[in-house]
Amino acid sequence: MKLVLTPSRHGVPLKPGERRPTPEENSAAIARGRHEMAVQLMRRFPQAKILGIEGKGELLIEIPDGDPDLPARIRRELDVETGPDPAGDPLDPVWRSDLQPTAEAVAEAHRAKEYRPTVVVVVRDAQGRFLLVQSRFNPDEWMLVQGGIEEGEGLFAALTRELREEIKAGPRRTRSQPPTFLGIADLDAEEGRTDKRGFTKGKRYFIYEVAYRGPETLKLQESELSAYAWVGPRLDDPELLKRLARVRPGKSKLLIGAIIRALS
User: Fold this and answer.
1) Which of 63, 84, 105 is the C-terminal boundary of a domain?
2) What is the span of the domain harbouring residue 227?
């Protein structure tokens, strides 16, 4: 079941004599509230999966169908309102709590030929900002650093290779601390599309966060990427939302879900 969570106190009227917040202050308050809601949800309800953001200050989540009392408990303990997912996009990411980031999980994906194993890297700089890169083949497609995991290749080896290939960043710039595992998600391909490697359903994303320590100006893999942007670290950062405006909803929710996990 998919639900949208909205803070119950969102939009409380001003008290007498209270100054109306500026748009920047209001945006920052919404971001803080959404972040706190995400943190409390993951802490108190680990069975709930965050899929992305919706509307103004809201979170899109998925919960198991076998617990009819769960929405009420979430409303009560987090002081939120819940409602159905208005989009109902069938191509939403499916976060896989039953899988671990192991060599066997990658090998099984290659054997099954359904979801192509792909490493995704949430790159964050010293200011906490996130790196987005733009596809040279589709200017509407802004994404995180990512790439397919070759058969027999280790997860960290694939992660290191993609960082070196796409943004020319070797381990010296990204290993100030070990990569942090954020989750695994399956995302179906759009209708009529198949992976060029013969995978029949879509991609299985193994998602990690790395700390990047400069320089801010990057050298891109020009054969695949045309631009980059440092965004955030707020979930409703205007630069982030502007670049996600035309990204397919499923991929946008995958990106936002990865960022929420990094922030939490």
Assistant:
1) 84
2) 94-263
CB 130 within 8 A of CB 231: yes
* 89 belongs to a structural domain: no
Please give the C-alpha separations between residue 212 and each of 91, 145, 163, 259, in angstroms, as whole numbers: 31, 12, 10, 15
| C-alpha span between 171 and 89 (Å, rounded) | 38
For 158-207, write each residue's pLDDT tens digit: 999 999 999 999 877 776 578 999 999 999 987 766 666 789 999 999 99
Candidate ranges 54-63, 80-89, 145-154, 173-182; pick with highest mean pLDDT = 145-154
Report the alpha-carbon distance of residue 144 to residue 225 in Å, rounded: 11
Strands (DSSP E) contained in the chain are 2-7, 49-54, 58-62, 80-84, 94-95, 115-124, 130-135, 142-143, 145-148, 180-188, 202-211, 225-231
Task: Check whether residue 78 and residue 110 sit in a common domain.
Answer: no
Q: Return the exposure string of 154-181: e unless at least 16 CB atoms fall within 10 Å of the residue's CB, then b.
A: ebeebbbbbbebbbebeeebbbeeebee
Regarding whether 181 and 113 lie in a shared domain, the answer is: yes
Q: Give the three-state DSSP class for 161.
A: helix
**pTM for the full predicted model:** 0.74
Domains of the chain: total: 2
